[in-house]
Write a structure and sequence with these properties.
- The chain is mainly beta.
- It folds into 2 domains: 128 residues, Immunoglobulin-like; 146 residues, no CATH class.
- Helices cover 11% and strands 37% of the residues.
- The protein contains 3 helices and 20 strands.
- The strands form 4 sheets. Strands 8, 9, 11, 15, 16, 19 and 20 form a 7-stranded mixed sheet that branches. Strands 10, 12, 13, 14, 17 and 18 form a 6-stranded mixed sheet that branches.
- The longest helix has 24 residues.
- The radius of gyration is 32 Å and the shape is elongated.
- The N and C termini lie far apart (108 Å).
Length: 315
Amino acid sequence: MKMKDFLIGASVFGVFALLMVGLFMYGGPSEASVTGVIDEDTGLAAGPWANTIVQYKLSVKNEFTGADVAATAKVYDEMPEDWGNPRGDFDEASDYTSYTASSGYVTVNDEKPGTYYVVMTASSYNTEFVEMVIPDGSSRDIDVADYNSAPDIKSTPMSALGTTTDEDFALTLVNDTSAEIKEDVDPKIVANTVFKGWKVIVNDEEGFSLDTDGDGTYDEGITSFEVCVADACNVIFEPSKSIDEFDSNDEYTFLIEGTEIADENDLEISINIEAITGDYTGANDEVWGEGEGVLAYIKVYNMDGTLFTTADVTA
């Protein structure tokens, strides 16, 4: 054998050996490439069902009771811009395919394999966001028709919107030069419901953040006003530190996103107030007195934008 032929043969053998090592290390060719199927949408190798309508089911039950939920599923090919925000705009019908639950199941029967984004809504329920992957038949030793007769099912439990009763701060004031008042109320979440927090609006109802005569003592004698809801605490008014968070509408808003309280647990709402107080009534007298009405409104909203509860601060 000539040296040139020997070298060529050795090179071919080396390439073959490398290919064999690669196949051993990575488990051989994928099933998608073996099938020879090309996904019409992506142009990439895919499983045998890639260009076929493949069914999928979402099981929609009440998280606590297991009862069927009459939900609507809006199925998007691409993640919508307002994904994760139940107050978002999901009304453009051309962007999604809509399916309705029947007997506790949403049957998705008009989609090809791929990843989809589902916005689940139902009256009096929290909005849920579900990522759904419809299989393309890879690693499935079954005909698509047989699969469609008993498709995959994904559990998508839904929780009823949290409800509660309003609780107010009813405070007894006495004559004092500088009283520190710390009180809390704990609205209880109704059984089998879930409160998911969005925001809190605090309203200066009595105008305690005003200093009408400009003498440095404010009209209702308040020197510090702090509100806490769940884990969020905000000092809204403390003139000695140049803190006045109220806007032109005498309101201050702060977020409580991430707050989630379920099933007969309490939502903690508290106030911390420092004030010159008295047991008498007098408007703009630089003293917070009994019988002067509501000092502040506290309004708590859930993630869907619904007013969940209120707490009035009254002396």
